[in-house]
Amino acid sequence: MTTVGTDPLPRWNGITEPMTVLTNVILGGFAFVLAARLALNGAAQGVAASSVLGGGLLATSLAAFLGAVAHGLDPRSDAAGRDRMWRAALYATGFIGVGTVASVAFFAVRGSTRTAILVFAGLKLVVYWINVTRRPEFRVAAADYGGALAILLAGTVYAMVRWHLPGSTWLIAGVAVSVVAAVIQARRIAPHRHFNHNDLFHVVQMAALYCFYRGGMLLVDR
């Protein structure tokens, strides 16, 4: 791993930010496996909450793989390609929030309230896409996902008290671990110069995804 010229980005065999690329690929593969298992379980059990939460994990997988490509492209030789992949990753991230919010509509409420939450999830995606088109920054994606997590937490607590929701402890743990990951990203906490805040964020986020997966496997629809 080397630093070329005045460009601080580390490189290895022509790949920029190799550790970030690697952790993104691992995150993407891990999320894909969890998403497939969760979606298949939801389909087999007829639980929409599990299926749509699995959809959110699938979006996480796609965003991670696109992010890996973006980080791996050299901005000196392919700045346009790097920008396209980065924007694609940000757009894909919007579907994570949709799956997260939509799951609440199925495991916490019924009737018109469910419909309202699903409509809100769709409108939230449109607003996010508009915002991220104007400002293609990770902080915009983080704010959108943070809002989705707040809705998930509120819905989980409500369903836990009202319905004794199975899997609620795992979902709450997932939100808590996601907050830790967000702090790492925001404060740029890096344990080593070759393992930066992005890399650590990916590793901690995998723990959060596992919690969401375990909770999702136990969900039931209202």
Would you write up a description of this structure?
The protein is mostly helical. It has seven helices and three strands; from the N terminus they run βββααααααα. The protein has helices at 18-45, 48-72, 79-107, 111-134, 138-163, 168-186, 197-218; strands spanning 2-3, 10-12, 15-16. It is globular and about 55 Å long. 43% of the residues are buried.
Summarize the structure.
The protein has 222 residues and is mainly alpha-helical.
Helix/strand layout:
Layout: E1 2-3, E2 10-12, E3 15-16, H1 18-45, H2 48-72, H3 79-107, H4 111-134, H5 138-163, H6 168-186, H7 197-218
| Residue-averaged pLDDT | 93
If helices are DSSP runs of H or I spanning 4 or more residues, what is the number of helices?
7
State the helical fraction: over 70%
CA-atom Rg in angstroms: 18 Å
Strand line-up of the largest beta sheet: 1-2-3
User: Quaternary arrangement of the chains shown?
Assistant: single chain
The description of the largest β-sheet is: 3 strands, antiparallel
Structural class comes to mainly alpha
Number of domains: 1
Low-confidence segments: 1-7
DSSP, total strands? 3
Characteristic terms for this protein:
222 residues; mainly alpha; 7 helices; 78% helix; 3% strand
